[in-house]
UniProtKB/TrEMBL annotation:
InterPro entries: 26S_Proteasome_ATPase, AAA+_ATPase, AAA_lid_3, ATPase_AAA_core, ATPase_AAA_CS, NA-bd_OB-fold, P-loop_NTPase, Prot_ATP_ID_OB_2nd. The keyword Protease applies. It comes from Lates japonicus. One of its GO terms (molecular function) is peptidase activity. GO terms for cellular component: cytoplasm; nucleus; proteasome complex. Keywords: ATP-binding, Cytoplasm, Hydrolase, Nucleotide-binding, Nucleus, Protease, Proteasome. Pfam families: AAA, AAA_lid_3, Prot_ATP_ID_OB_C. GO terms for biological process: proteolysis. Signal peptide: none annotated. This is 26S protease regulatory subunit 6A. It is found in: Cytoplasm; Nucleus.
Amino acid sequence: MASLSDKSVWDEVEDGIGEEVLKMSTEEIVQRTRLLDSEIKIMKSEVLRVTHELQAMKDKIKENTEKIKVNKTLPYLVSNVIELLDVDPNDQEEDGANVDLDSQRKGKCAVIKTSTRQTYFLPVIGLVDAEKLKPGDLVGVNKDSYLILETLPTEYDSRVKAMEVDERPTEQYSDIGGLDKQIQELVEAIVLPMNHKEKFENLGIQPPKGVLMYGPPGTGKTLLARACAAQTKATFLKLAGPQLVQMFIGDGAKLVRDAFALAKEKAPSIIFIDELDAIGTKRFDSEKAGDREVQRTMLELLNQLDGFQPNMQVKVIAATNRVDILDPALLRSGRLDRKIEFPMPNEEARARIMQIHSRKMNVSPDVNYEELARCTDDFNGAQCKAVCVEAGMIALRRGATELNHEDYMEGILEVQAKKKANLQYYA
């Protein structure tokens, strides 16, 4: 402790109120000291009072926390928020003994509808942030007081949840032969806007909302969509056109709505609709309920593709074999902007496809893929893959350890025989 003889103490006194103290008499200094002692006692009593109040407040908070914990025990009653209202205590003034505490409460109130089909109007007491609530939200309420205790995840159709691809496909762009132009167009329309959004913003252009892939069967449309899903980190939802055709009225449209709602929640996301011609056919007058239901599903798809509130974080890839029967409203710009044609592979593409599918096989060096490609005229990509599989089976039958050129030629004859048989069968 510093003594009065220390020079630093007197320096501090002189810097502050030293001049005033030096001018005071001894009696004035004693009086000032007594005054300061009384102020210190008052402050100590005030600190003691605040400490007691704080302890009482902590006990009350602890008691209320226990009550909340008891009231928040499961199970909850599931309810939907219908409407949110702002309550102003100045709207209804009450005098005297008629003053109600609930009427003096400021904040939001909610109208909820429970799963027992009862409607209630109640205050949002603060366990859930009232600003984050919106009409249509699913909430858990106390089964006795009906107070909102917790917000619940949005409810989606279980069939839509099953459409989400959890495991990433393993296909790569290098596994696809003869479709370099189509790969580039798909990357520009789908992958680039998601991974490099700033490039489009700098140019001031809007990327395409969707892509339509069309062409004969077996030309690699679904394969390219799987490769696109593997290359992007976006959520991938796979819908099949026949899945959206439902028996009950409005069920197919609800599936489409839920699929796009799930995609928006998990944005950025890609929705792949295979066999689009199942629901996207041209509209016509029909008295059959099934045809009208298919048209309703397509109208909901049109609305989601280019509705009142478009979402640029949700991309749509559609694939079909019959582009000629699709409704013109689906094909217009603004919905499926980019149309990518998948033609039958040419000679070079067929050779590349067979090389890709033979990479993991034990193939003899004398296999000439160019000659095989010339022998597989009018083959699509799937049939070229079938040639490689048949060649492997032929080599397996004769007990060989590697595939030679003759195995591939016999495989071509096998696939050609099946192709002709199918044509004659359906003729």
